[in-house]
UniProtKB/TrEMBL annotation:
Domain Galactose-1-phosphate uridyl transferase C-terminal: 235-396
Name of the protein in question: Galactose-1-phosphate uridylyltransferase
Class in the EC hierarchy, top level: transferase
Single GO MF descriptor: nucleotidyltransferase activity
Organism: Oceanitalea stevensii
EC number: 2.7.7.12
Domain Galactose-1-phosphate uridyl transferase N-terminal: 62-224
Pfam families: GalP_UDP_tr_C, GalP_UDP_transf
Amino acid sequence: MTDTVRKTRGTLADGREILYFDDSEPYVSGGATRRLDDPRPLPDRFAPVPGPDGEPQPFTGPQMRYDVLTGEWVPMATHRMNRTHLPPADANPLAPARPGAAYTDGDIPADDYDVVVFENRFPSLVQVPGEEDVVTHLDGEPLWPVRPAAGRCEVICFSPDPEASLATLDERRMRTVVEAWADRTVELGALPGVEQVFCFENRGREIGVTLHHPHGQIYAYPYLTPRTATMLRQAREHRAATGRNLLRDVLEAELRSGRRVVAESEHWVAYVPAAARWPVEVHLAPRRDVPDLPALTDEERTDLAGIYLRLLRAGDQFFVAEGDDGEPRAIPLPYIAAWHQAPVHEGREDLRLHLQLFSVLRAPGKLKYLAGSESGMGAWVSDTTPERVADRLREVME
């Protein structure tokens, strides 16, 4: 942590970890500490559970099955069917506790916070104490390998205000979010068996968000995700053919062209990729070759906070529709913001940090559905051109 951000670690009632990242006084200096005790009467999350016969059975975590047709692991997280879905405002589990009120079933015991991270109550990846990460076979068939989904899923809350968004933060608080992402990347990457750390944000009902409080997630995967594995293969082939880093060459090509570059700062470049597939898509890359968020310097992190906010605010101006009063109004952009980082153990020299920000909204009230070609064959068809997207982004950023 820097001198401007203080991390405080605690434990929730069921044993999950919670971490406060504070940039405001009296917390950043240590003059005060956020509430760390959790009075909820929750059982330990790894406690035995009743079996079909009512007798206690050892807790078992989610499993993964290997798809031999694609070479991909698929976690089976059936317990997530019961996760919180669009709760009323007075039952928001991501909001701070009400000062002086009886503690409710929220996951944050403090009555205020700057940025907070905690383990997901309904994780699709979890390391169960004492559970060995070994491969078995479904129905005894060698074609169907099965292993524990032994990773970790965390939630990061960007603001205590349920009506806020990441775009409404100031640069100081955005910098604290960057510090939290970097911190979690280091700690999660050090867990046994973790191969990749992914920081991301889903925003908007159209994306499938079930909690509208401003928050993101951080996954620690025990395998390389398909997207990363594909980029790593492409990068290695490019290096074998040219001796150069593929993502470095992509950035330099976009800068030479300039046609799709939408914003630049001292340390960062934002551009719409030449083969963008989403209705709105922009990538944000550092000028310097770095594998992940922890590798950024203080100057690069501060610069990132500013240009990232510019991109998010531009996204919220991208689409305009006529309001009930007949006046044009901007439509908050539903989006996914995905931080692509080099894996923990392999590909550190071949993959390069970058953000992919994209939206399924192709026009006001109209979504890009992943229909037959995209979903069935993985063969993408774009509804626009990257140049048109870049032109509109530059227009709203000005």
